[in-house]
Amino acid sequence: MKNLVKIISLIVLMILINACSVKNDFNKVVKPNINDSVEVIDSSSIRTISDVNAIAFEWQKVDDVRVIGYNLYRANMTKDRSKLSFIKMIKNRYTSHYVDRNLNAGTKYIYKISSNIKGEEESRTTDAYIASTLATMDGISFIQAISNLPRQIKIIWRPHPNERISSYEIQRTSAHTSQWNTLAVVRNRLQAEYIDLDLEDNVIYSYRVISNTFDDLQTRASDIVKAQTKAIPIGVQGTIASTNLARKINIVWDKPKVSRVVQYNLYRSTSSRNSFSLLKTFNSSTLNFDDFINEDGKTYFYKVSHIDNDGLESDLNMNSVMGITLNKLNKPIITLAQIQGEKAILNWMSTDKRAISYIVHKTIKNSFLSTKKVIFDNIQELRFEDQDIVRGVEYKYSIQAVDEFGIVSDITQQTELILPRLEEIN
């Protein structure tokens, strides 16, 4: 009988040497030092309560006064199979409870417990005890993402029924990245809404929600839902800029039919390729504007956008329209400039059909240092006679054309006329 006990002890020792493992002492493998005389925990007294990531143990303490505590061994049946590892030394023989934490959800584990005494000796272990963690809790049962909002998406869900839930983790991914990023943590189990702000226009985003418990456990992720932000309004159509007005450009545009307009923005640039600057804003009832410009023949390029009721501005990536103020008139051509009798005669030819009248500029040179200028305007003919001349005085004439808006041409080159003095008779 004694030999049988020795053989059984030797077999148990060999099993424990192969199965039991590291005592978290710099990963150094420690071989159990078995003392068959030490009382073993009654395997039938072991009870467990499982959670998602923890298993709580209860057992009947031993009465052996030499016992100073207990050693716990564990193996993951999925990964380790029957290879047990040392996980904890409980240093009080009156302790009869232990919680093994940080376990994998929905996983089976094998446990064995031994009693230990001074001198690092321990009893044989209990029979193998199999316990399983609970599966990860189901996530929320309903989630929805609402599209067509201006640069934002609203996510709503049904509150999780489990009262252990303390918060919700909102995660998002988009076409730009396949990685899930946590946007925010929404506190309170009954809070069931989140609005994602500052998004890009007309972009599809994906969302999911993970529920968290008070003790930092996570449920399964919810279903994935998608939503698309509102597209920016279609640009303003029918924009026209005038090219035939004096010192102003009139811009008109059509009212968009696809969205509600609250404001128009008018942009202007000196080039169709340069950046456009905001010139003026208008209310929704305004569909034209006169851009007054104190310059003839000035060219500007224009774009019109509108702001809709959600505050989105229509697309400015469109062709601009060109507007031009009326050019100066072409200056007339003087065809005759001479003295006839006691008067100066000027004839000219019009070179611009817009001309309706002319201005004659007369410069009188009284002396080397003294000149006088006289202007004759609203001349309707192509001829001018000046009878107010004096012999021996130098006169210079030039002409400008004028249109109906008062725009004048450049002045012609001066032509010089002089009525010679009469020779004195002795």
Q: Which topology of the largest domain does CATH recognise?
A: Immunoglobulin-like
- Number of discrete helical segments: 1
Structural class comes to mainly beta
Any guess at the CATH architecture of the largest domain? Sandwich
User: Which of globular, elongated, flat, extended, rod-shaped describes the shape?
Assistant: rod-shaped
Alpha-carbon distance between the two ends: 181 Å
Low-pLDDT windows of residues = 1-29
How many independent structural domains?
A: 4
**Residue fraction in strands:** 35-45%
How would you sum up this structure, described in words?
- The protein has one helix and 29 strands.
- By secondary structure, the protein is mainly beta.
- Strands 3, 4, 6, 7 and 8 form a five-stranded antiparallel sheet that branches. A four-stranded antiparallel sheet has the order 12-11-14-15, with no helix packed on it.
- A hairpin with a 6-residue loop joins strand 16 and strand 17 (248-252).
- The N and C termini lie far apart (181 Å).
- The model is unreliable at 1-29 (pLDDT under 50).
Identify the notable features of this structure and list them briefly.
single chain; 426 residues; mainly beta; Immunoglobulin-like; 4-stranded antiparallel β-sheet; 29 strands; 44% strand
Write the layout of secondary structure elements.
Elements: H1 2-19, E1 47-50, E2 55-58, E3 67-76, E4 85-90, E5 97-100, E6 108-117, E7 121-122, E8 129-132, E9 143-149, E10 152-157, E11 165-174, E12 177-187, E13 193-196, E14 204-213, E15 225-228, E16 240-241, E17 248-252, E18 261-269, E19 277-282, E20 288-292, E21 299-308, E22 321-324, E23 333-340, E24 343-349, E25 357-365, E26 371-379, E27 383-386, E28 394-402, E29 415-418
Antiparallel strand pairs: 1-2, 2-5, 3-4, 3-6, 6-7, 6-8, 9-10, 10-13, 11-12, 11-14, 14-15, 16-17, 17-20, 18-19, 18-21, 21-22, 23-24, 24-27, 25-26, 25-28, 28-29
